[in-house]
Amino acid sequence: MSFTEDDIKAAGRAIALRDDQVEGLVAVLRARHAGSPAISVHASPERVRFDIVHVLWYAGALIVMGAMTLFSTLAFEAMGGTALTVTALVYAALFLLAGHHLWYRRGLHTPGGLMVVVAVAMAPLAVYGIQDASGLWGDGGDPGRYRDFFVWIKGSWLPMEIVTVIASLLALRFYPFPFMVAILAIGLWFMSMDLTPWLLHGRDMTWSETWTARQTVSMIFGLIMIGAAWFIDLKRDSRQDFAFWLHLYGLLAFWGAVTISDRSSELAKLLYCVINVGLVLLSVFLLRPIYAVFGAIGVAVYLGYLASRVFANSLIFTFALSLIGVAIIGAGLLLQRHRTALSAWMTKSLPETITKLRPPHAGAQRLEHA
Questions:
Q1: Which end of the chain, N or C, is more open, meaning fewer C-beta atoms within 10 Å of its C-beta?
Q2: Three-state DSSP class for 300?
Q3: With bands split at pLDDT 50, 70 and 90, how would you rate the model's confidence at 120?
């Protein structure tokens, strides 16, 4: 049987051992079983670190994608949709070939994966050109320039998002690179906003009803993305984090829709606060700090509302907001200090059927995202 140091550290933290106790356990096991064929304790595989080289790789990929967005506007005005599609496909093919070579032939997964990410990012550009050349915009009509894809919510963008999601999933099948999920998550997030016009096809609704429908679709879609990220966490590789971006954009879709929804009654406002407190607790259960960030902002919004009511038109209001900010910071410090103990309490106190829903990394150290 073979264990990595991370396996032992994860087990130690799962039973609420302190860091110094975990390190001591690793040292004792290493000394005791040195050379033993039955049990070996070896160092974990090297993880990706964000040094200057990796920063340059990621920056280069982002610059290429940004340049193609700028080029799309110029090329579209000069050559039209057909030329735009051809250019995007040529770019995608070249970057895919380069990425495949680096990934499989050179064993350079980070630059190779980034090349494939750039290739996948060409998918919406190619579809945009096809839609323009054929006039297949759907009921949403011509949505305008490609750069508006990142700004305006329109049903005409949906085919671009569907193709981007499919391309991302195919790329992940052959090049399991965590940052690829960022493209997938962005496509799904945009889809959650642009899906409403398709669902309301042919229905006459007021602006208020349409806005409410968008919020409902966004909340449901966000919950689906969070559920998918949770499932990936339960099944994921112990050294790579494929679910981070799905958690982030799922939260943006769900929490954003809940935050801007109509909360005219006091009960609705209180429920909003309860939801955000639940997100903070979920951050401990899943060991995902991003939930605590959104939850803390939501709680601060609710407390700010209460303070504005109690101290309306008063100079004390500014001091009340300051106290709320200090309280939020203090709560974060307490959560940081007692997170391990709270996590262990959850493991011991919750029913086994619920603890099985905790991701394996919930008691281990935070993983790298890239």
A1: N
A2: helix
A3: very high
Q: Assess contact for 124 and 148: CB atoms under 8 A.
A: no
Residue for token pair 């949770």: 230
Three-state DSSP class for 179? coil
Q: What is the pLDDT of residues 206-229, one digit of tens each?
A: 666 677 777 888 888 899 999 999
Please write the tens of the pLDDT for every residue from 245-260. Answer: 899 989 998 998 898 8
Q: Under a CB-based contact definition with an 8 Å cutoff, are residues 120 and 180 in contact? A: yes
Nearest-Å Rg of the Cα atoms of the chain is 24
| Coil, strand or helix at 240 | coil
Rounded to whole angstroms, the Cα distance separating 86 from 297 reads 45
Looking at the chain, the whole-number percentage of residues with pLDDT higher than 70 is 65
CA-to-CA distance for 288 and 226, rounded, in angstroms?
A: 12
What gap in Å lies between CA 17 and CA 12, rounded to an integer? 5
Exposure pattern of 72-92 as b/e (b: 16+ CB <10 Å)?
Answer: beebbeeeebeebbebbbebb
Report in angstroms the alpha-carbon separations of 121 from 37, 67, 96, 171, 172.
Answer: 48, 12, 11, 11, 13
3-state percent helix, strand, coil for the chain, nearest multiple of 5: 75, 0, 25
pLDDT in tens, 17-54: 666 676 777 777 666 655 444 444 444 444 445 567 77
Q: Find the helix packing angle between 180-194 and 207-235, rounded to 10°.
A: 150
Angle at 243 between CA 113 and CA 336, to 5 degrees: 120
Distance separating alpha carbons of residues 40 and 42, to the nearest angstrom: 6
Angle between helices 158-174 and 109-121 (to 10 degrees): 160
40 phi, psi to nearest 5 deg: -130, 140
**Amino acid identity of 126?**
A
